[in-house]
């Protein structure tokens, strides 16, 4: 039996509010789908992807003191630069990749509401940018992020139409995302491997996980050599892998000219918006992050961040930095998109020579 693949939408059909895309919506996100789709023909996407993704390697190559200024411990490193702060399966700190987080639409999501920034730091803290160290990063990330969000809103509108026709549910997803102040972009860079990495379990490079948002916009992989020039993928098994509801693991390819969208665990409402299960669903059956009855989206996110992002010891990070400094810069690096679905699970498998963009 053929396994399902990512469903493709054209930007033109998503932009047509009168189009009936219910069959494709169900194929992508319904009970038999993988929880992922791609969108072709997105205006300005190809140029924006090309402008942003190579900057991941440049950011990672900045001096350690320059990256330290971009760290934001108060947000659990969910704004600015983060390396060695996330814990992998097995409890090991993830020193193999560096991440840069920013809200692509709002530099200060909480505005003047200092209480929100204090209570929900992973969502509401202000952006940090490298400024003169890498001035092109801010406009490039904001440009691609705006394209991802606007295209995702078109997809969300058709998801609402499908749900309204299927079960009489009022349209909500589009409006919640349109009003959200919690969009989060993540630019990821994977460092070149060392000898110890060669024997490591490939799944640990980005193990099975769920995203806590509603839709995750994904770019395809981009591979760069040590000089920052495009390179071929060194491993055909690398990329995004999804485990479907039957337990089958499927590798999904996103064409370079397509924008991908994968469903996540929950919506992305305002941080103080209460999360309630659908009518007729027991709270015991809801498996969204660290959610418990009565928690808001922000409270759920903060508890989830506590679980997944934990600081590694300074010694581990120092040894990782020394190892990277001694590596030859000959191995190609790879940019891969990261996502997850509920109740589907996703992981990245392959050789650890990557950099990643998640928006």
What does this structure look like?
The protein is an alpha+beta fold and 359 residues long. It has a single domain, classed as B-lactam Antibiotic, Isopenicillin N Synthase, Chain (Jelly Rolls). It contains twelve helices and 14 strands. A six-stranded mixed beta sheet has the order 3-4-5-14-12-8. Strand 9 and strand 10 form a beta hairpin. The relative contact order is 0.19.
**CATH architecture classification:** Sandwich
- Taking pLDDT < 50 over at least 5 consecutive residues as the criterion, the unreliable ranges are 267-271, 310-359
Tally of alpha and pi helices: 12
Broad shape: globular
What is the class in the CATH system? Mainly Beta
The CATH topology is given as Jelly Rolls
What is the rounded distance between the termini?
A: 33 Å
Instruction: Going across the biggest sheet, name each strand in turn.
Output: 3-4-5-14-12-8
Average pLDDT, all residues: 76
InterPro entries: IPNS-like_sf
Protein name: Non-haem dioxygenase N-terminal domain-containing protein
Organism: Chlorella ohadii
Characteristic terms for this protein:
single chain, 359 residues, alpha+beta, 6-stranded mixed β-sheet, 4-stranded mixed β-sheet, 12 helices, disordered C terminus, IPNS-like_sf, Non-haem dioxygenase N-terminal domain-containing protein
């Amino acid at each position: 039996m053929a396994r399902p693949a990512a469903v493709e939408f054209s930007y033109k059909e998503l932009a047509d509010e009168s189009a009936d895309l219910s069959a494709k919506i169900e194929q992508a996100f319904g009970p038999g789908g993988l929880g992922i789709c791609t969108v072709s023909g997105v205006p300005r996407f190809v140029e924006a992807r090309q402008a942003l993704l190579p900057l991941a390697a440049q950011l990672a190559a900045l001096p350690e003191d320059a990256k330290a200024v971009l760290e934001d411990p108060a947000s659990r490193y969910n704004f600015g630069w983060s390396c060695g702060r996330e814990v992998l399966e097995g409890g090991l700190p993830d020193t193999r990749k560096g991440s840069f987080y920013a809200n692509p639409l709002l530099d200060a999501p909480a505005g003047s509401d200092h209480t929100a920034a204090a209570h929900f730091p992973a969502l509401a803290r202000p952006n940090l940018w490298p400024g003169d160290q890498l001035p092109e990063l801010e406009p490039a990330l904001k440009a691609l992020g705006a394209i991802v969000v606007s295209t995702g809103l078109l997809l969300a509108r058709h998801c609402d139409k499908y749900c309204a026709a299927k079960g009489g549910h009022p349209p909500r997803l589009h409006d919640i995302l349109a009003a959200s102040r919690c969009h989060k972009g993540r630019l990821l860079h994977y460092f070149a491997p060392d000898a110890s990495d060669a024997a490591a379990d490939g799944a640990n490079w980005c193990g099975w996980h769920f995203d806590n948002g509603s839709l995750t916009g994904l770019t395809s992989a981009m591979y760069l050599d040590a000089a920052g020039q495009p390179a071929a993928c060194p491993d055909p098994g690398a990329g995004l892998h999804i485990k479907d509801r039957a337990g089958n693991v499927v590798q999904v390819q996103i064409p370079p000219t397509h924008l991908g969208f994968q469903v996540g665990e929950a919506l992305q409402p305002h941080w103080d918006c209460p999360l309630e299960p659908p009518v007729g669903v027991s709270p015991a059956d809801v498996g969204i992050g660290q959610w418990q009855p009565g928690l808001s989206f922000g409270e759920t996110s903060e508890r989830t961040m506590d679980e997944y992002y934990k600081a590694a010891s300074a010694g581990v990070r120092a040894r990782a930095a020394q190892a990277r400094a001694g590596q030859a810069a000959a191995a190609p690096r790879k940019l891969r998109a990261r996502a997850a679905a509920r109740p589907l699970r996703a992981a990245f498998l392959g050789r650890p020579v990557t950099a990643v963009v998640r928006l």
